[in-house]
Design goal:
Layout (H helix, E strand, L loop, with lengths): L1 H21 L7 H7 L13 H19 L6 H16 L1 H5 L3 H20 L5 H28 L6 H23 L2 H17 L3 H31 L1
């Protein structure tokens, strides 16, 4: 059963995502809702094409488990990831009905499940990297939906402070995870998101600060690579 639970949750999530795009649930597409509640953290729409890559990695992982039968991926890890994937399909329903508080709650639940898998990594490197990519994009979705919730409830008065705190927390957690767990993929996902925020936003202070954050992240990656290389040479 563990061979197929991952595939089942993946197929359900991809199928519902496609269905809700072709026949918009509540007659609203995800882009329509995003345009209704504009925020200063929303990136250009093609940023979300990263979901296609995430979906592909889920399928790759399933084929890997099916044919390679790796013994270093345990049943609990598969169940956790499959649960997070399935919830990714469920949260689209309240989102299309503009029940942002429930949407955010479900996204935070996914984030918690994936953080558990990051904190207690699998012995399998492929599993860890796929989980890392998914986790960091869900973290981005969490921040975006916090901003959407504030806009939805007319509480987006001090957006400069909210934006600064959000990006600062994003970068700070990224650097921490990079140093502690070598999450290079997460760092690249953050650079990807910030680049398309620059493209989508017209505010000059957002553009300037995003460029600075990108520079700091890339610098952190360079230092981490250098540190890892030195440790490897010592061995």
């Amino acid at each position: 059963m563990k061979k197929y639970i991952l595939l089942l949750s993946t197929i359900i999530t991809i199928a519902l995502t496609i269905l809700f795009s072709i026949l918009p649930l509540n007659w609203l597409s995800q882009a329509d809702i995003s345009n209704m509640y504009t925020t200063f953290i929303t990136p250009a729409w093609y940023t979300f094409s990263i979901w296609s890559i995430i979906y592909i990695t889920w399928l790759i992982l399933w084929f890997y488990i099916l044919f390679k039968k790796p013994k270093d991926i345990i049943k609990k890890e598969i169940n956790y990831l499959a649960s997070a994937i399935f919830i990714s399909a469920v949260w689209l329903i309240p989102y299309h009905y503009q029940i942002i508080c429930i949407t955010l709650s479900l996204i935070v639940l996914i984030l918690w499940i994936l953080f558990y898998l990051i904190k207690y990594p699998s012995a399998n490197k492929l599993f860890n990297k796929i989980t890392e990519l998914y986790f960091w994009w869900i973290y981005a979705a969490t921040l975006l939906n916090i901003h959407l919730l504030l806009v939805f409830n007319d509480k987006y008065y001090y957006w400069e402070i909210i934006w600064t705190i959000s990006i600062f927390a994003w970068v700070l957690i990224n650097i921490y995870l990079l140093r502690k767990y070598s999450t290079y993929i997460a760092s690249l996902v953050l650079v990807w998101a910030l680049f398309w925020i620059i493209v989508n936003q017209m505010n000059q202070s957002i553009i300037n600060s995003s460029i600075i954050w990108i520079f700091l992240i890339l610098l952190s990656i360079v230092f981490k690579v250098y540190s890892d290389k030195n440790e490897y040479c010592k061995k």
